[in-house]
Design goal:
The protein has 23 helices and 14 strands. The chain is α/β, with parallel strands linked by helices. The strands form three sheets. The chain has a six-stranded mixed beta sheet. Strands 1-4-3-2-5 form a five-stranded mixed beta sheet. The longest helix has 38 residues.
């Protein structure tokens, strides 16, 4: 039964064929259907063969009085014979007649058999007419199909240069300013734009003019597009939205044509809003080959510049654009008169994260014991999209575990998943697991003992993503400014894992490390040390910025960056980086050597429990340090 249902539900294969194949199938089928229409049914013909008589048999049955009625068709030379004793619903017997049938007529008259002459000429003509009309309809349908396809192709050609912007007379995005949190300053700037559109007299009375463009700048996931939706939802004016990549095509002139068409429609519906997402796709700096510059993109940009602030004005049109690459935008696009305002939408601070979590927690069942403020403190550096994803992952885990509300356990697991990846299978008790335990304990211990380092949040041997073990540090405050001591503490703690392996297992047993979310550990600490030397002036070389911050990233990655210093300075940079890293490594190595017993004790606990939270870790370290101080005092008294 199930197989029969699958066959019934299965999509007919002929629907997947191209138009030509379908038409050919229709034409072939018509040769089978047409004979049925005109009366030549093969199945019926086989039945009629069994229900026939010969001419001589008809005469014989007529003479015997077995014939009741006869209908003679002179056109087809066929007689339809009704025998005595047959039921009314029984079909007549067909008899093939001769060209002339006087003998049959005489016998029928002599036996007083009822007979009549019928003609099928009219029915045959109708059947031939229907057969011909069917072919005419088939040809007309084919012609209409070809005309329709050619019309669609011509319409596409005519609309190729038209704007693809999505237009809404009154944008119903479902997003208001109350739904946007964590970007208070940006909201205030954009609320003024909405007020400009709703109450322009409030500003024009004092000589203020409406801004022509607002550029939203910030990292991915900070809420730039969400703010644009909120503006559209609040303003109540016509709204155009599109992506910067929709302007650019492989054909020259299409992008400029679409810009003209967009602003033409906007002027017809002014006052209105135009939102261009990822404007760096079309607004890159002109005259440089970096970033795939081409004439088509530059023509599109030139047309956009002209429409925003050219010879003809566009009063009542406000352009809102979003990008996370403001450094690559053309300077003419950023000048006042085009984009009058640049609104920074940055990563939220502690209060901003708390506001974002409050907004996203409204439609989720969260246990009263969960503290949103604690989550906000632990998620420093998270964007609004990261926080929304965090609560969503926690809700998924809650449903998977069949709980009624989200608890701290789901929040912790969701945080680990978002940052480090999916949880893996725990390692068995082996040498590999012990090496990873020493590696992670070394980092956590040095991070706890060294000055200016963030406190430990968790140490675990449960693999996540590509990391076989993880050590989490939770900052106490926002790291808007990093001191030299803090950067050195970060390098020391990261290198402490390798230093612990060397102290415990020897230099020949040093491994590649348990992994780190930001990348491989050696690369990470090298990049910090290089920035300290070349960008922050935190070395003996002096207060010089030796690598401009606007250097193209892919050029630095490929070793193609242009340097403005000599080979002597380059050698000094290398020595300074090496000195910073080696000093931090020796510091961590000394701390591990001086606290070897504590390291062994923590490793045993970690192997047994697989996870140690920050409070318990600091408690064990504090108790050990207190005992060590007491022993040292007793030894001094005895001496």
């Amino acid at each position: 039964m199930e197989n029969l249902q699958k066959k019934v539900q299965k999509k007919p294969s002929f629907l997947k064929l191209p138009h030509r194949t379908i038409l050919a199938s229709i034409a072939s089928a018509s040769f089978i259907v047409c004979p049925i229409i005109i009366g030549i049914n093969p199945v019926a013909a086989q039945k009629n063969e069994a229900n026939t008589l010969s001419y001589s048999k008809l005469i014989e049955k007529t003479q015997q009085g077995q014939v009741k009625k006869v209908k003679i068709d002179e056109v087809e030379q066929v007689a339809q014979v009704y025998l005595v004793g047959n039921k009314p619903e029984d079909p007549p017997i067909r008899v093939k007649l001769l060209a002339q049938n006087p003998e049959l007529i005489n016998i029928l008259k002599k036996q007083n058999v009822e007979f009549e002459e019928v003609s099928s000429a009219g029915n045959r003509a109708a059947q031939v007419f229907l057969f011909n009309m069917m072919w005419v309809l088939l040809l007309v349908s084919l012609a209409l199909l070809l005309i329709r396809r050619s019309a669609n192709a011509s319409n596409q050609a005519m609309n190729f240069g038209k704007s693809r912007a999505k237009f809404q007379m009154e944008a119903k995005t479902g997003v208001k300013f109350d739904d946007v949190a964590g970007v208070k300053e940006a909201k205030e700037e954009l609320e003024e734009v909405v007020t400009f559109l709703k109450q322009p007299e409030k500003f024009t009375a004092v000589g203020a003019r409406i801004p022509k463009g607002v550029l939203l700048v910030g990292p991915p996931g900070t809420g730039k597009t969400l703010l644009a939706k909120a503006i559209a939802g609040e303003a109540g004016v016509p709204f155009f939205s599109m992506s910067g990549s929709e302007f650019v095509e492989m054909f020259v002139g299409v992008g400029a044509s679409r810009v003209r068409d967009l602003f033409k429609k906007a002027k017809e519906n002014a006052p209105c809003l135009i939102f261009i997402d990822e404007i760096d796709a079309v607004g890159r700096q002109r005259g440089v080959g970096i970033g795939g510059g081409n004439d088509e993109r530059e023509q599109t940009l030139n047309q956009l510049l002209t429409e925003m602030d050219g010879f003809e004005g566009n009063t009542g049109i406000i352009i809102i654009a979003a990008t996370n690459r403001p450094d690559v935008l053309d300077s003419a696009l950023l000048r006042p008169g085009r984009f009058d305002r640049q609104v920074i939408v940055d990563v939220p601070d502690l209060k901003g994260r708390l506001d974002i979590l409050t907004v996203h927690a409204q439609n989720k069942k969260i246990d009263p014991s969960v503290s949103l403020e604690a989550i906000a403190r632990r998620t420093a550096g998270f964007t609004g999209a990261d926080l929304a994803n965090l609560l969503n992952e926690a809700a998924i885990l809650t449903a998977r575990r069949r709980k009624e509300a989200i608890t701290d356990l789901e929040i912790n697991d969701a945080t680990d998943r978002v940052v480090a990846g999916m949880e893996g299978t725990p390692l068995l008790d082996s040498k590999k697991k012990r090496i990873i335990a020493y590696h992670e304990v070394g980092k956590a211990l040095v991070g706890t003992l060294i000055e200016k380092h963030d406190p430990v949040q968790k140490v675990t041997l449960i693999p996540r993503g590509q990391s076989l073990g993880l050590t989490w540090f939770a900052p106490n405050d926002e790291h808007f400014l990093m001191s030299r001591l803090q950067l050195l503490a970060i390098i020391t703690a990261i290198l402490a894992g390798r230093a612990t392996e060397e102290v415990v297992f020897g230099a020949k047993e040093i491994t590649s490390g348990g992994g780190k979310p930001e990348g491989r550990e050696i690369e990470y600490v090298t990049s910090i040390a290089r920035d300290m030397v070349t960008m922050y002036g935190m070395s003996d070389i002096g207060q010089f910025s030796l690598e401009p911050p606007n250097q193209e990233t892919f050029m630095r990655r490929n070793g193609m960056s242009k340097t403005d210093y000599s080979e002597v300075i380059s050698a000094k940079i290398d020595h300074a980086i090496r000195d910073i890293i080696m000093q931090c490594y020796e510091t961590g190595k000394n701390l591990i050597t001086n606290n070897r017993k504590l390291v062994d004790h923590l490793v045993e606990i970690l192997i047994e429990e697989e996870t140690i939270d920050g409070d318990k870790f600091r408690q064990i370290v504090g108790e050990y340090c207190t005992i060590a101080e007491e022993k040292l005092t007793m030894n001094l008294v005895r001496s």
